[in-house]
Amino acid sequence: MSQSLIVAKFGGTSVADFDAMNRSADIVLSDANTRLVVLSASAGITNLLVSLAEGQELEQRAYLLDEIRTIQYAIIDRLQAPDVIRQEIDRMLENILMLAEAAALATSAALTDELVSHGELMSTLLFVEILRERQINAEWFDVRKVMRTSDRFGRAEPDVDTLQSLCAAQLAPRISEALVITQGFIGSESKGRTTTLGRGGSDYTAALLGEALHAARVDIWTDVAGIYTTDPRVVPTAKRIEEISFEEAAEMAIFGAKVLHPATLLPAVRSDIPVFVGSSKDPAAGGTRVCNETPNPPLFRALALRRKQTLLTLHSPNMLHAHGFLAEVFAILARHNISVDLVTTSEVNVALTLDTTGSTSSSDSLLTQALLTELSSLCRVEVEENLALVAIIGNNLSKACGVGKEVFGALEPFNLRMICYGASSYNLCFLVPTPDAEEVVRALHQNLFGA
Ligand code: ASP
Ligand code: MG
């Protein structure tokens, strides 16, 4: 069975309403090897739940709950026999209300995860019902039975070994009996409390389950027909990439291309499982295949853009001929749970950007007063916000000749605030002022990929 198993994941827009769910059901049923389906919450639901988890006043709670009910009832209302499932969803809504009341008294990360998990719990219940009305032997599976994670609520890490053995014991047997529908994004820690893998984590769930079940492929169905040379909203002539390597796709995800959750490819790479990315609105349009090796990897593959970068420049005359300064800086950052993204150094300066990948709900800067105070005791600190990171993804970039000319030739009119090149042969990246960012991407795209 597992030799040809496909795990299919559908994102929020692919299960947004009755029609979207049916389009996704068509995709599932079009390939008999698809035996496990992983779903996000219906579009919009997670944001509403996060808002409730932040602790709201009575009227706002009622309003948000109503919004959630409206989205899910719109699906129920189109079922042939809506009564039983309506009761189940009503029970979920009661739970949500109770948890939202608790959050209004005192918020907590554990409570937030318990609350937001209801989005995926509801979408999967509804999807099973849609399949059953189409006479399919579909089964709802609570992924928390197998997705064991750490107790870092909001951004839990999976315990891959436990996941593997729990899947073999509990999930694999179900898959051989029925088409199994389960939740992305959520898990549980060793005491049984609900956790989440971080926003957008359903892709990661699909890849983790695919790995645990030795799937032949993981299909990620979203609202874009694959991975493009850059964001088509910025460059309308961006081209779809038919095949891309794990390394390149991982770089793209990390550097801000929003197609895949950055962690998705870890299990895929580890276990060499190809990942397909396509649009559930238009499956016939095809998509992008992400796999171990691609024929003739090009020097330049794609451009990614990540906004809201914070650059810290640290100045310390003591650094001259001294050692241990960088170690101290990194130790301070580590104590504040901040990982560094880009770094450049000179004799008495260090410039670095803070890594914001995977940070949860708010997109606020990670920079806190406590961190600044601690750094300032060591050196002079300059902070620049409002920068954007442009990353060029490619192959052998650090080994080829002429890369600098081709890249920077097109960027003459722009200020490049910082350049990182040489650490990875898969990327070259630099910071530009945010107002220039899209222009820079367009100029580069034109130069590297043509019109
Ligand atoms: N529903 C979750 C979110 O909106 C997880 C996901 O969609 O992947 O972040
Ligand atoms: Mg999503």
UniProtKB/TrEMBL annotation:
Domain of life: Bacteria
SUPFAM superfamilies documented for this protein: ACT-like, Carbamate kinase-like
Keyword Magnesium part of the UniProt annotation: no
A GO term, aspect molecular function: aspartate kinase activity
Pathway(s) this gene product operates in, as recorded in its UniProt entry: Amino-acid biosynthesis; L-threonine biosynthesis; L-threonine from L-aspartate: step 1/5; Amino-acid biosynthesis; L-lysine biosynthesis via DAP pathway; (S)-tetrahydrodipicolinate from L-aspartate: step 1/4; Amino-acid biosynthesis; L-methionine biosynthesis via de novo pathway; L-homoserine from L-aspartate: step 1/3
E.C. code: 2.7.2.4
Catalytic activity: L-aspartate + ATP = 4-phospho-L-aspartate + ADP
GO cellular component: cytosol
Record has Amino-acid biosynthesis as a keyword: yes
Keywords: Amino-acid biosynthesis, ATP-binding, Kinase, Lysine biosynthesis, Nucleotide-binding, Transferase
Enzyme class: transferase
Protein's name in the database: Aspartokinase
Organism: Candidatus Pantoea soli
